[in-house]
Amino acid sequence: MKGKIIAQILAAEWIPSLSISADELAQVAPLLLNSGGGAWVWRQIRQTDLKETPAAHELHQAYRMHALHVAIKELEIARVFTDLRSNGLEPLMGKGWVIARQYPEPGLRPFGDIDLYVRREQYNEFRAALQTGHGGDIDWHNGAAELDDRSFEQLYAHSQLIRAGKVDVRVFGPEDHLRLLCLHFLREGALRPLWLCDIAIALDALPPEFDWDYFLSGNQRRSEWAVCTIGLARQLMGVNIAALPIAIRVAKLPCWLVPVVLREWGKGKVTHGRRVRMATYLQHPAGVLTALRERWPNAIVASVGTKAPFNNWPRLPFQLGECVLRTTGFVRKIPSLLRTSNVS
Amino acid sequence: MKKQIVEAGGEALRPQARINNLVTRELPDEELVYDLKTHQAYCLNKTAAAVWKHCDGHKTIEEIATLVQQETNVMISNAMVKVALHQLGRANLLEQRVDFLAEQPSQLRREILRRIGLGAAAALPLITSIIAPSSAQAMSCGDPNNNTNQNAVGCSCQSNNDCNNNCCGFGTICASLGVLSNGSLCRVNCECAPGLTCKPPSPGLPQRCLP
């Protein structure tokens, strides 16, 4: 229920007949604020009667705070690129600021880190170049996991320079970036509603020369997932993709996909990464059952983890398969984890 | 910041806006200001923002009032400019803070409301602090099995190096620095409040923040 309300509010940009009550807004506002969607929702309700409600006040504050935060981050981004270039290094930036700048106003899409993607062989060089003076704002990506079916040379060749404050920064080309956003959304189990908004915004801002063949190139299973995510953006956000060459391919989504996404949004979980690591329970077993329940992969994570097709087959086998994969990986690591904890 | 006491009406005063260490962002009906020194964020309504913009150290209060009135199409009196200056000073957004001894801001505000009426109260200069609601950024954590990401507070970690603040805390989650009080379970010193150390109370027991 909450997931549906969230989808309805977020989609008001594309489907402008928003009809939710103040109570409904109050119900979902904490989830939206917690997942970074507060400012976007403020934009959707600020011309309605809902703008006078206490929940709206919180959303408005989030919008203001994010707008300032973006201005501060732009200074930091410019500094990072200037410092790296003085060392002859050029990273690729993605997600965060790169998609936030495509939203209709600054501050609608908050971001925490500056996501920098670098060649694996240059990773340490990059890290060393920015060892001091940049706080903890940089999220270094050793290679581009979601895009590793393309070479880094390809990614650079398609990259673009765009202005961040007074500096040009290098970002992924639109094809690579849309693919990255789609695959990242799925890899993270569709947890944050704003990530689907990102995809809808990116689709709205596609340049006329967007190369769909390149977007769909590489691992075909991943391409199929990316296309499904675009279909999801059409269905839940209402973004118009009728004119896109892939419109026919996205027409039918697997029956489980939308319910899973709405259920996740309704739960309001923030990220998978905020959980206590399983290794902790080797020494403190209390709570291990709850931890196992929390780790039960949703159908999206399980499908991506087991490289499964997005079709109408039941997802339970893939969810079990994903659990087996994870457990195997964990068991293999136990000796080294125990050694590490004994040392510390 | 120096404090300037204005004994009389202060009409000869030429206020100057502070520009250093501030980040600003203009929104349709307001201006946001972030003080990089104090880490305070403020929201200036249209009138306050317009007054602040004209504080160049050359213009008098009267001149500022005239200019703001032209820009906003709202009746702006000297008293309104004074109220704005008072608030700007309190928010540390002027080079010199000004206090109008003869006219307290609350008196000024009442006087203004008497003149312009409650209906035009929205035109009164207003500066408010922005307090962020408990909103997380739309960040994602790095793969906990891949130590190549510098994770934010709240993400999983295996060593301090995994966290962007170099503090991989109890539960192997990137922790906020120095927030745990005396007696709290901990994993590393950086989690504990200043003056406390993360250590076992006696051999074999879990580590806690202790003096």
Which terms summarize this structure?
heterodimer, A: two-stranded antiparallel sheet, 54% helix, 7% strand, globular, B: 211 residues, alpha+beta, 4 helices, 10 strands, 22% helix
How does this model look, in words?
The complex is a heterodimer of chains A (344) and B (211). In chain A, 54% of the residues lie in helices and 7% in strands. Chain A contains 16 helices and five strands. In chain A, strand 2 (114-118), helix 6 and strand 3 (138-142) form a beta-alpha-beta unit. The model of chain A has no long low-confidence stretch (mean pLDDT 89). By secondary structure, chain B is an alpha+beta fold. Chain B is built from four helices and ten strands, in the order ββββαααβαβββββ. In chain B, a hairpin with a 2-residue loop joins strand 2 and strand 3 (30-35). Chains A and B meet through helix 2, helix 4 and strand 3 of A and strand 2 and strand 3 of B.
Main sheet characteristics of chain B:
4 strands, antiparallel
Provide the helix percentage of chain B.
Answer: 10-25%
Rg on CA atoms of chain A, Å: 21 Å
How many β-strands of chain A, per DSSP?
A: 5
Order of helices and strands of chain A: HHHHEHEHEHEEHHHHHHHHH
Q: How far is the N terminus from the C terminus of chain A?
A: 46 Å
Number of helices of chain B: 4
Number of strands of chain B: 10
Q: What's the gyration radius of chain B in Å?
A: 25 Å
Please count the helical segments of chain A: 16
Strand content of chain A: 5-15%
Largest interface, and how many residues on either side? A-B, 57 and 47 residues
- Run of helices and strands of chain B: EEEEHHHEHEEEEE
Classify the secondary structure makeup of chain A into a structural class. Answer: mainly alpha
Class by SSE composition of chain B: alpha+beta
